[in-house]
Write a structure and sequence with these properties.
Layout: E1 6-11, H1 19-29, E2 33-38, H2 48-55, E3 59-60, H3 66-71, H4 74-79, E4 83-89, H5 91-99, H6 105-112, E5 117-121, H7 125-129, H8 131-142, E6 146-147, E7 151-154, E8 160-164, H9 168-188, E9 204-209, E10 214-215, E11 221-222, H10 229-240, E12 244-249, E13 261-264, H11 268-278, E14 283-286, E15 293-295, E16 316-318, H12 322-327, E17 336-343, H13 347-358, E18 362-367, E19 379-380, E20 382-385, E21 393-395, E22 399-400, H14 401-418
Parallel strand pairs: 1-2, 1-4, 2-3, 4-5, 5-6, 9-12, 9-14, 12-13, 14-17, 17-18
Antiparallel strand pairs: 7-8, 10-11, 15-16, 18-20, 19-22, 20-21
Helix pairs in contact: 1-2, 1-9, 5-8, 9-14, 10-14
This protein binds cytidine-5'-triphosphate (CTP).
């Protein structure tokens, strides 16, 4: 619920700035109070007058305006809000935020605020993909800035790709979701001060992540392209909410996440052993891309080329299904078993079928078809399927894997708050 929430809308420069007018109107239509800061560059695209008309409030722009400073200092401005929303967020303002610059009222307020910050980036695709922007986004994500990922499409500059400001309706939905989650987490432990930030304290979690390597001989293996980014982010997000978390990780190139105990596993069988040893837990999230097959026999020496050039025949055996095994673990079954469904077509239907087939409670279904860059990439578009009925499926906008992880961890916290 956005009703009665106070949003400080920071509008930075860029062709998408005109959409901030619609955004301000929509946020107010949902009952929010909107106060805006317009940067100097932003004011080249929208006038303070139109923004003032749509927010129904004075528009702030000049750090050194004496009246603004005496009536409303930048510190108060940034703190008399429940959420600071930067939309559109240009590459420039994101870089300044990442580096803590305070060169104008917008950046000063962003540095001074003690409130949650959400950004909706909009820029040219090359700028969005540039290593500098990637690094700035990673810095901001690590500081818990929520990113509303830009959309893909044709840009004002004529180029095509990712970088368009997310649809106003998606931004409003993300804001709504943010407040709903905050309210649910606050309600989870209303009496204990500070516990809203750790609603999973006292809960045990196990998460699998990454690929498996199934050896053929001492030097070769069957693997897959899973990077482990999503699973690792989920383990970190559960730990951030206070869960005692064990991450069973396949071979990945990622550092062990902070605050999590990590068990390294190579094969599906190793992974199953590590997960079973951790049970019972309250929640299991099986995000690993477990190899479905292994070599029936692993050669003890390197398989050599034959003189007649016929390739070796490798007979495969099916690996254990860790998710299905955990879901069928009898009295050791976790209260909440969450699986992933990596699909390339009919994502939701296949996800629902997989939920039933594996006996898990929730499925996070994602589209991994070529072109989505989900495998190895930093973003994910998922559907959270919590039951067989249509209204038990939530489709989330394209988000960073960290944001998907945070939302999933929040959903887990809400679940335990509702069914303690
Ligand atoms: N999974 C598992 N053990 C396996 C295979 C999959 O725990 N041996 C889990 C994954 O971690 C994921 C879910 O099952 O949570 C679904 O994985 P996915 O690869 O989408 O499905 P598969 O079971 O492999 O089915 P298919 O490849 O036929 O779609």
């Amino acid at each position: 619920m956005i009703e009665n929430r106070r949003i400080l809308l920071v509008v930075s420069g860029g062709i998408a700035a005109y959409k901030s007018l619609d955004l301000a109107r929509e946020l107010r239509r949902h009952g929010a109070t909107v106060r805006a800061i317009l940067t100097e560059a932003g004011a080249r695209f929208v006038t303070p007058l139109s923004l003032a008309a749509l927010t129904g409030d004075k528009v702030y722009g000049d750090l050194f305006s004496l009246t603004d400073e005496s009536e409303m200092g930048h510190i108060r401005l940034s703190r008399e809000a429940d959420l600071v929303l930067v939309a559109p967020a240009t590459a420039d303002i994101l870089a300044k935020m990442a580096h803590g610059l305070a060169t104008d009222l917008a950046t000063t307020a962003l540095l001074a605020t003690d409130k949650p910050v959400m950004v909706a980036p909009a820029m040219n695709v090359r700028m969005w993909e540039h290593a500098a922007t990637r690094a700035n986004m990673a810095t901001l994500a690590a500081r818990d800035v929520t990113v509303i990922a830009p959309a893909v499409g044709e840009m004002a500059c004529g180029e095509e790709g990712e970088g368009r400001l997310a649809d106003v309706s998606d931004i409003v939905a993300a804001v709504e979701d943010f407040f709903d989650t905050a309210a649910a987490l606050g309600a989870a432990n209303p009496t204990e001060g500070g516990s809203a930030a750790a609603p999973l304290r006292g809960r045990r979690a196990v998460v699998t992540s990454g690929p498996t390597h199934e050896p053929l001989d001492p030097v070769r293996f069957i693997g897959n392209r899973s990077s482990g980014k999503q699973g690792h982010a989920i383990a970190a997000a559960l730990a951030r909410l206070g869960a005692d978390t064990v991450l069973v990780s396949g071979p990945v190139a990622l550092p062990d996440p902070v605050g999590v105990s990590v068990v390294h596993a190579e094969t599906a069988e190793d992974m199953l052993r590590a997960v079973s040893a951790r049970l019972p837990v309250d929640v299991a999230v099986m995000a690993a891309a477990v190899g479905d097959w292994r070599a029936r026999e692993v050669a003890s020496h390197k398989i050599k080329k034959r003189t007649d050039r016929t390739p070796p025949r490798i007979e495969l055996a099916e690996n254990p299904d860790i998710l299905a095994a955990v879901a069928a673990a009898g009295n050791k079954r976790p209260r909440l078993v969450i699986g992933f469904a990596a699909e390339t077509e009919d994502v939701i239907a296949q996800g629902r079928a997989k939920r039933a087939a594996k006996g898990c409670d929730w499925i996070v279904a994602n589209d991994v078809s070529p072109g989505t860059s989900v495998f190895g990439g930093d973003e994910n578009t998922v559907h959270l399927i919590r039951g067989a009925d249509e209204d038990q499926t939530e489709s989330w906008p394209r988000l960073s894997k960290d944001a998907v992880a945070a939302r999933l961890a929040d959903a887990v916290a809400r679940h335990f708050a509702a069914v303690p």
